[in-house]
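User: Is it possible to get a 3D structure for a protein together with its bound compound? The compound here is glutamic acid. I've pasted both below.
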Amino acid sequence: MPPVTRIAPSPTGDPHVGTAYIGLFNFVLARRSGGSFILRIEDTDRERYNPESEARILEVFDWLGLTPDQGPASGGPHGPYRQSERLHLYREAVDRLLAEGKAYRAFETAAELTAMREEQRRLGKDPGYDGRARGMPREESDRRAAAGEPFVVRLATPDEGATSFKDELRGDITIENSQIRDPVILKSDGYPTYHLAVVVDDHAMGVTHVMRAEEWITSTPIHVLLHQALGYPLPLFIHMPLLRNPDKNKSKISKRKLDTSVDSYRAQGIVPEALLNFLANMGWSMPDGREFFSLKEMTENFDYHRISLGGPVFDLRKLRYFNARYIKELIDLEDLAGRVAPLFRAKGWDWPDEDYLLDVVDLLRPRCETLLDFEEGAAYFFDDDFEYSEEALRKVEAGQSHLEDLEREISMLDFFDYDSMDELLHGYVQRQGVNIGKVMQPMRSALTGAASAPGVTEIATIIGKRRVLDRIGRALQSITAALPDDNPQRELEERRAQEAQAKQGGQQQ
Ligand code: GLU
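Assistant: Yes, that's possible. Here is the predicted structure of the complex:
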């Protein structure tokens, strides 16, 4: 039977990297063997419900390319895929459990439950529900419910013995039944608790592999008891290692210590392929040990038995390292340009044709680690009125005579392309017998307004002859017009000029 897996996020806030992580593994597990990957929205906690969160979660899965086969957006045979729209199914399950005496209503008020716990503490007993409503006669329970008295429904769990299940990665896990204290399955607001909803839905949706984070291991015995009470066969359980903060204690990743929002990584210019590849390496490895692989390659090679349980650390430097590799090499140039283009447009930049954009992106990519890095220092490709930095002006000033020479030589070039420009620059350097930097640095500064930028010939080829000449002219003008007032060289020159003028004036009189 092909596997059916699910990711079951609760729409309570920012789409979490942990959700992307577990989603990725569920996706590849299903797709590896032609199964189905479900996205189910677990919105039964009405207090923590955030109406914008669902759309953002769906958007993140789309962006990552982990498009669910079934879910609220695409529908599917087991819909609806939002738990708040499936309340009748949970009610039916509860009614059946009540009728079969496997669950019971409990009418205690919050004050009564607090008093119960205080008493337990005083007597040195483990705190937890003591099953006091279990023996309530059915007629009394029905009458009080019919009279509108608030209640919860609890699962009647065995007091003796133990409950076991097999975790596919950890082996058998057993918990004493005395630890399971008749958990609430239906809340007083009529909504199911997580435990009931997850069991009813996993069964109704035909989920074969419940793959989720390690933190749910302690809930699993309750789910096992619920499956048994409802007469459902058990799915396989696979609990993934938790992602850890890169701190000394390797605590579970948390907002306080780390940015856990997928949207925020996206906004920082992280590409989805890199985030997925980075997450894929968290507790899993390719059979041949290679670090860089695509979602398709992961899918083809996926085997959950290769998941290792050592707590993988969410190391931001590593994420950036993956991102840089995708940007510098692994993403196709056209594809990359398509992602950078909207960022450029948002800055109000435009370009004459597609080739121009491709050339710019190709030239800049070796210097970029994120998509945002492309906008930094790229203005000179799109905006002729860029400002010159002070450092750039100093370089222009230092190379003034070279720039004047080059302006002349370039203007005489009949044919302007990479080779002719390269030849011209190198020929000039040779004839002058100077260090190449003495020529290139001022040129680079003249063309870009900055002291550091990619190769001069490359930039010149992209922007073209006319703009190269305009920029050399503007740079030369700028050093007389815009050098900062505290520049001693300029002050000296000005003073000399004034003195010379004064002298001349004096002679004329
Ligand atoms: N709604 C739970 C969560 O937010 C799902 C846990 C599970 O996969 O069973 O993580």
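The chain has a mean pLDDT of 94. Residues 241 and 359 are 43 Å apart (CA to CA).
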